[in-house]
Design brief:
By secondary structure, the chain is α+β, with helices and mostly antiparallel strands. It has a single domain, classed as Glutaredoxin, CATH 3.40.30. The chain is built from 4 helices and 4 strands, in the order αβαβαββα. The strands form 2 sheets. The protein has a two-stranded parallel ribbon. Strands 3-4 form a two-stranded antiparallel ribbon. Strand 3 and strand 4 form a beta hairpin. The protein is globular, with a radius of gyration of 14 Å. The two termini are 23 Å apart.
């Protein structure tokens, strides 16, 4: 995510992390801010304490990456780690659309 953010942000890619906490200490905004800073996360991370985003996307797995086009339509999603080449190809494709 960090590499894609650095490579594509200037071309219009917006990455938003969704933090759905597993433990109670992960529900505190300051703890999430501190962890994101420690990990060098440079893109926004929303705190999804009530799992509203998680539920809205009917997510069941972590990690899952969703690619949403300029009109707000989910065009691709990947469950789990890996398959970065396919995700990056779709990022390129979506950024090329007008």
């Amino acid at each position: 995510m960090a590499a894609w953010h650095k490579q594509y942000a200037k071309r219009g890619l917006v990455i938003i992390g969704n933090h759905a906490p597993e433990f109670s200490h992960e529900k505190k905004a300051e703890n999430v801010r501190r962890a994101a800073k420690k990990l060098g996360v440079e893109y926004p991370v929303c705190l999804d304490n009530d799992f509203a985003n998680w539920k809205a996307y009917r997510n069941r797995y972590w990690p899952t990456r969703y690619l949403v086009d300029k009109k707000g339509v989910v065009r691709s999603f990947r469950i789990g780690e890996g398959d970065h080449a396919a995700t990056e190809a779709m990022i390129e494709r979506l950024l090329a659309e007008s």
